Amino acid sequence: MYPRVDPYDQGMLDVGDGQLIHWEVSGNPDGKPAVVFHGGPGSGSNPRWREDFDPDHWKLVLWDQRGSGRSTPRVSDPATSMEHNTTQHLIDDAEKLREHLGIDKWLLIGGSWGSTLILAYAIQHAERVSEIIIPAVTTSRPEEFAWITRGLGMFYPDYFDAFREGVPEEDRDGDLALAYNKLLNSPDEKVREKAAWDWSKWDLSTITGGDNDFTGTRYEDPVERYQLARTVTHYWGNQCFLEPNHVMDNLGRLKGIPGVLIHGRNDFGGPLYTAWEVAKRWPDAELVILNDAGHVIMEGNSMDQAVTAAVEKFR
């Protein structure tokens, strides 16, 4: 809707543990603050978000979570430790960034994994949140991981068999995210490469509703493919370092914060049920159900239009 302007300020913030997170700000330096929590985990920020925000009105912050995008050290390096890469670390990083930029309150926007991180951050720091916009709602409960790594096999039996057979036989009936994470941290480069390929084939198919062709996607780049697979399996294999129903059980803390939840009825990877349950427990949030949408925001699709409308609502 708006031109994709260049950032007027950017930098690397030292957040401790040897971690530097990349951030950038675009739009109006005196405008209403908003921040994007990107998905993945591990995908890095996407400048296309700037097109949803009027640069004359908004002060828009993009940042790369630990180890992703331009933050360092990169998770794409197998030697990079994941010890200090957890949900609580990311929540703390966001707070340090807000303080660094001198922002009192900001609008939070982001989907998929970004949804979980937004809700977890807002539960801890509700006083710093003006509004929330979430396309593709997730809360990272155990049943959500079980669905996306196993339950979806009923819709994609061909892809699921290949996905399951990508791990050792003794691990095939257990936690597949954890099993893949072990392979992705193998000292053998060939083992890591194959695991990243096999995991990504499944991951992409669940996001797109069945298409797992890497051509033209981030998965086409073997470095990006490995980084994303390693980060996602690290988080999913550890239940995103959250208590099983942490987000759902604490949504009452968001009372008074206006929100818009946007979810596609055809989102196979993240069924509508989660968004429905979040909306019931967070009365200040409006749920927008899109009958023709899935998990992905694409230029001009109904999800993209709903996000633009939500941003305009909170001008």
Automatic annotation (TrEMBL):
One of its GO terms (molecular function) is aminopeptidase activity. It catalyses: Release of N-terminal proline from a peptide. The keyword Acetylation does not apply. Residues 35-299 form the AB hydrolase-1 domain. Its EC number is 3.4.11.5. It is found in: Cytoplasm. This is Proline iminopeptidase. It comes from Lentzea miocenica. The lineage of its organism: Bacteria, Bacillati, Actinomycetota, Actinomycetes, Pseudonocardiales. The gene is pip.
